[in-house]
Amino acid sequence: MLTGVLHMRSTFRFLALLAVAATLFLSGCSSVGSAMKASPSLANAAGLADIPMPYLEERYVNEDSRFIDVNGYRIHYRDQGEGETIILLHGIFSSLQTWDAWVAELSRSHRVIALDMPGFGMTGGPENLDDFDEDNIVNTFAKFVEHLDLENFTLAGNSFGGYVAARYAAQYGNRVDRLILVDPLGYPQETPLLMNLGTAFPFNFLGNYVQPPLIVTLSLRNAYGDPRRMQDKDVYRYVHMAQRPGAKPIYMKTLEMVEERTENEAPLPFYRIAAPTLLMWGKDDSWVPVELATHWLNDLSHARLVTYEGVGHMPMEEAPDETLRDVRRFLTNGLAVFPEPAGDIDEGVAQAN
Questions:
Q1: Domains of the chain (ranges plus CATH)?
Q2: pLDDT in tens, the chain (353 residues)
Q3: Where is the AB hydrolase-1 domain (predicted)?
Q4: Which residues contact 162 (CB under 8 A, 6 or more apart)?
Q5: Cα separation, 143 vs 129, whole angstroms
């Protein structure tokens, strides 16, 4: 009897998610053109083929690119500018180019290091997929810091990169002078429908072999507060990285890892973070809602929150000028220029205009 009920629930969940997928497809037909343009072949347009590495290297490796072997990964990173060091960690399915606007501005006065996180971008995944998990990623980043002989720096991370940055700051507090968390993942939450779709059978199985550009494009639209701000170069980048050789199983493993993280009720060590922390959040983030900032503010002893109206999950892409203004204020004056939140999260935030 119980088995039958569970089977019915599983079937209902699958049908519901299938209906969501169909709705998203019909509502996102304007994304078809971008998805097709990003595909170098018909097989890529169908999500069936990998994009050869020379094609990707021509587009995403430049004169500022460097590679270093760390913990079984060949990490791709860019090291630009001089001065105090800032390290930038992107979120899942993204790459270091998500920070291009920040790098262009901040490298005028700072040394800025942006890396393709383990599993993503031109770094790619480990030979053994079983090695790819939260601890492996945090440990790899820690070894990356050691390899570059970095002692003190400002650390910034978006989404899952924000979670990695926070875990690193909690463990290596003597190295992190300032912390910037942009729509960080970490605390228990409801996962987005598109993520649920990716972890439901048979999509979680098929995703190891097929990554349709249309799905990638629709996910990106859903992550933006205003999809009209999406630039073709960013759409192409997300599509290309999803079809990098070896990316498909890594992406599906990532979805499982994120789902496990969002369902994990175990206490997090973020109360150990001593560095002044600026929380930056898109108010229209449907992936990691701004209400979750309450947990961070409760656990971090020195933190402020600034939000961005009409902006989604990646404010540094969607609102580069506004976010850079606040980063500059934080780097120059610390947290003193950001008012303390009081009361309800929607009433007590410092909102960017």
A1: 41-189+241-352 (3.40.50.1820)
A2: 444 433 444 443 443 444 344 444 444 445 556 666 777 777 787 778 899 999 999 999 999 999 999 999 999 999 999 999 999 999 999 999 999 999 999 999 999 999 999 999 999 999 899 999 999 999 999 999 999 999 999 999 999 999 999 999 999 999 999 999 999 999 999 877 666 666 667 777 777 788 888 888 888 999 999 999 999 999 999 999 999 999 999 999 999 999 999 999 998 999 999 999 999 999 999 999 999 999 999 999 999 999 999 999 999 999 999 999 999 999 999 999 998 865 555 544 444 33
A3: 85-320
A4: 89, 91, 181, 182, 183, 184, 185, 186
A5: 19
User: Tokens 């004169």 — which residue?
Assistant: 63
Residue with tokens 């290309």: 240
Per the CB < 8 A criterion, the answer to whether 301 and 274 are in contact is yes
d(CA 144, CA 150): 9
256 vs 9, 195, 347, CA distance in Å? 20, 9, 34
pTM of the model: 0.88
